[in-house]
Design goal:
The complex is a heterodimer of chains A (379) and B (437). In chain A, 50% of the residues lie in helices and 11% in strands. In chain A, α1 packs across α9. Chain A contains 14 helices and 8 strands. The longest helix of chain B is centred in the middle third of the chain and has 27 residues. The N terminus of chain B is likely disordered. The chains are: A alpha/beta (379), B alpha/beta (437). At the A-B interface, α5, α6 and α13 of A face α7, β4, α8, α16 and α17 of B. The structure holds iron/sulfur cluster (2 copies).
Chain lengths: 379, 437
């Protein structure tokens, strides 16, 4: 089996590795979003598992417990939990990333409690006091998790875990670097599968797969230039490759992204600080998510540059010719961020297609025409 | 006027108390004072209610301009569509918080025109000198002002408001939660000092806190009077009289208003004067923002003998006792916020696990409730998600009829009168059936 085939396999059977690890006696800690440090969970000898939804399964059972105007990604995750698809979780951790996740934490906790349940408050604001607060929240979380794991956190092991995840981050950046080629030898859909598959397996195993994939991609024959537009994707949760496949089918290369399930969750390393928690705090609070308010930096133009400058660099370095936003409906922070980012990118002469969707593969057909029209326009 | 038009303009409800009728003037005055302050050169700020910073803003002599209230006002005047549509044309989603949509649409129009849009309710909002967002209650309340900078390039600040989940060990987390809240308030003060060129006067802040606490104590006392049968003041009054508590907090105006209202409600209680002559059912408004577009619906309930006697919105907290060792006003505000938010945590841990359920159970008991109604607003995640959950959990401890009405706080496109009337009909039948047994 090639590395890509192994990845596909895990991607298609997302909980299977976690289940088998559990059968071997490991404890699996499920969590939402990008704000829960895998490093802490791993250093305590537990297995982190990032909870995902399903864009193909209809949401049915969740409706009796959760309002339909909640983010469909969150509803889908909960729906799966209600159907016992997350019965392998020993722990359930939610960061207070947004209103929906915070509310859902309580609903989930009441209806589908895990042996270990915990909510981490994540500051929405940035600054020294936010760092201190978040550090205290992480320390409090660690103490609760220590009780659950029945062992104390060894700071050396935490530093080791930080190095481990930094290694994975470096490899993922290397993989993303290969997308700079024109045309890239690795597709956007393959990238998403690689990332999503990695969210449900131990980092050591993921590292092996990425290493194998990088070698494979390098061996693929270089394709002749096809003149298709290179696309940058922005949005929140895309844990299914079908949307990206659709964009690529319509005649484009998805070459770079800023998604919770993409570069956003791995791009920055954790600094190896003397107190490892300091490095964790900095790194996790600095995640570029619209749910965090960047303090205003000067007048409008400077402020936009301060908020989105990293995206400009992505676009320049990966030579994107257009941007597509995929916003999961009812995500207020993304919905408020989208028009600002659009204005900024338009200012760089980059065309933008803003899509708001229901986190469901059933709407893909309707999106095809819009994407085709957009690609034709930028060709 | 055609029938349809007559229906369209009828938005407000008939009030129960005389004092509540004075609110109209207080609302008008919010916008009038902002215009006057602007003319004088006094600083005005866009401001989010219930952010735990009200007294700080007042003590700094900054005039608050509550954008959420303005959105509700537009809905009550049925003049929201042009602002909603403008925001949508500017790229904001149709499902984004409709308060934010109205605010952004208004700002966008004011900028495009170079003046306040013609005929805006109560004279419209002047452009502020700054915007003060907060993370209390929901995410849009800090993201909205960041987005509004597209139309208003003014200094903008966001303050975090945090509280622990009910399962947290309060002894373990209390200190660092309060410290963070204090630091956030201090950062706001630093910001306001730069904007106004004035130093915060701690004595003045204490004075505003004293007035703020006094007003909220009186408001609480008024609500306690409402346990009386028949009920002396209905929820439609509450949705008006929350104005001083939220938009005049920290001023004598709020204290005077609640004192007067207290006296009236006390008189009604003592003389057994109810909202309607024949009170058959006592309803708890379980949560959610009110349907500003259709407040007369409360009178519709009354036509079945059902009175809304108490509600779980706007007066979010009972008075709390900050420990005497707290001597600094900023510390006091941080402590007060923490105590307010954790007031039902202990009870929750001992019983249902959910602070709001505990609070509602207390209300059901104290106010002799016969049924509970929630209002889900399609575009407000923060006050809506969890209502079904509350209803389900409450149902484990109480057999009262409960119902969730769905629309939006302002966007009429989400409202169906026929469906509401059918639901209300079924609900009142359930009330009746339960009373018979
Ligand atoms: S997509 Fe948005 S609303 Fe949904 S969980 Fe993520 S941040 Fe929250
Ligand atoms: S609480 Fe609801 S209505 Fe108020 S600003 Fe937040 S989302 Fe909008």
């Amino acid at each position: 089996m090639t590395a890509m085939q192994k990845i596909e396999d895990i991607y298609n059977n997302r909980g299977s590795r976690a289940r088998s690890l559990r059968d071997e006696g490991h404890k699996i800690i499920g969590y939402f979003c990008c704000f829960v440090p895998d490093e802490i969970i791993t250093a305590l000898g537990l297995v982190p598992y990032r909870i995902q939804g399903s864009q193909t399964e209809p949401i049915d059972e969740a409706d009796a417990l959760l309002e339909p105007m909640a983010c469909p990604f969150a509803r889908s995750c909960f729906n799966m939990a209600l159907k016992d698809e997350y019965d392998f979780l020993d722990g359930f951790v939610a960061p207070h990333s947004c209103d929906t996740i915070e509310r859902l934490y309580h609903i989930w906790h009441t209806n589908k409690p895990s042996p270990f349940n915990h909510l981490i408050n994540v500051p929405h604001m940035l600054g020294p006091s936010s760092d201190e607060f978040y550090k205290n929240e992480l320390l409090y979380f660690t103490r609760r998790l220590e009780e659950f794991a029945g062992r104390k956190l060894d700071l050396e092991r935490l530093k080791e875990a930080i190095r481990l995840y930094n290694r994975r981050r470096a490899l993922l950046r290397e993989l993303y670097g290969l997308r700079k080629e024109n045309p890239p030898r690795v597709t956007g859909a393959e990238i998403t599968k690689t990332l999503v598959a990695g969210m449900g397996i131990p980092a050591t195993e993921h590292i092996e797969l990425i290493t194998g994939l990088i070698a494979e991609v390098k061996e693929r024959p270089a394709a002749a230039s096809d003149g298709l537009p290179r696309i940058f994707l922005w949005g929140n949760e895309i844990d299914d490759s079908s949307f990206i496949e659709l964009v690529e089918e319509c005649g484009a290369h998805v070459v770079m992204d800023d998604l919770c399930t993409g570069s956003r969750f791995f791009w920055q390393d954790v600094d190896e600080t003397e107190d490892p928690f300091d490095g964790l705090v900095r790194r996790y609070l600095d995640i570029h998510c619209p749910r965090t308010l960047k303090p205003q930096a000067g007048a409008r133009e400077d402020d936009l540059e301060n908020r989105f400058g990293y995206i400009r660099r992505f676009i320049e370095d990966w030579e994107a010719a257009g941007a597509i936003f995929y916003i999961v409906r009812y995500c207020d922070t993304c919905e408020l961020e989208g028009p600002d980012l659009k204005e900024y990118l338009n200012g760089l002469n980059l065309p933008v297609l803003m899509i708001e969707d229901d986190y469901s593969t059933s709407t893909m057909g309707q999106l095809r025409t819009r994407i085709q029209a957009f690609l034709e326009m930028i060709m | 006027m055609t029938m349809e038009q007559a229906q369209q303009v009828k938005t407000t409800a008939v009030k129960g108390t005389d004092t509540a009728r004075e609110i109209r003037g207080l609302v008008k005055n919010i916008y009038k004072s902002a215009h006057e302050a602007k003319a004088r050169g006094q600083k005005i700020a866009y401001f989010m209610v219930a952010s735990q910073y009200d007294e700080v803003v007042r003590a700094m002599d900054v005039v608050p301009l509550p954008t959420e209230n303005y959105a509700g006002l537009c809905a009550a005047k049925r003049d929201m569509d042009r602002f909603l549509l403008k925001a949508e044309a500017d790229g904001y989603s149709q499902v984004l918080c409709s308060y934010a949509r109205i605010g952004l649409g208004f700002d966008s129009m004011r900028r495009e025109l170079g003046h306040i849009p013609e005929g805006s309710p109560d004279g419209g909002m002047p452009a502020p000198d700054m915007m003060l967002g907060s993370s209390a209650v929901c995410d849009p309340r800090f993201k909205w002002y960041q987005a509004a900078r597209r139309y208003l390039d003014v200094p903008t600040f966001g303050m975090d408001v945090v509280f622990p989940p009910p399962q947290a060990d309060l002894n373990e987390v209390r200190d660092y939660y309060i410290r963070y809240q204090r630091d956030q308030l201090q950062a706001l003060i630093d910001f306001l000092e730069v904007q106004t060129g004035k130093k915060m006067d701690p004595e003045k802040l204490w004075e505003c806190i004293r007035l703020g606490d006094k007003a909220w104590q009186l408001w609480y006392d008024i609500d306690r009077l409402r346990v009386a049968v028949p009920c002396p003041m209905p929820s439609q009054d509450h949705f008006s009289i929350m104005v001083p508590g939220h938009y005049y907090s920290g001023t004598q105006t709020a204290v005077d208003f609640y004192q007067k209202l207290y006296d009236e409600v006390k008189y009604k209680t003592d003389n057994k004067i109810g909202v309607i002559p024949d009170e058959k059912y006592r309803i708890l408004y379980g949560g959610g923002l009110p349907p500003w577009h259709t407040l007369w619906i409360f009178n519709y309930f009354e036509s079945f003998g059902a009175v809304f006697v108490i509600e779980n919105v706007y007066r979010g907290f009972d008075p709390v006792e900050v420990p005497a060792h707290v001597k600094d006003p900023v510390d006091y505000l941080a402590w007060r916020a923490f105590l307010r938010y954790t007031a039902y945590h202990e009870k929750a841990r001992a019983n249902s696990g959910i602070p709001t359920v505990e609070k509602l159970l207390e209300m059901i008991d104290d106010y002799k409730i016969d049924g509970v109604v929630f209002h889900a607003c399609r575009s407000c995640r923060a006050t809506t998600i969890g209502q079904v959950h509350m209803k389900n959990e409450l149902g484990k401890y109480s057999d009262l009829p409960m119902m969730q009405l769905v629309s939006d706080m302002v966007d009429l496109r989400d409202y169906s009168e026929a469906q509401w009337k059918a639901q209300i009909g079924a609900f009142t039948e359930a009330l009746q059936a339960r009373k018979k047994v």
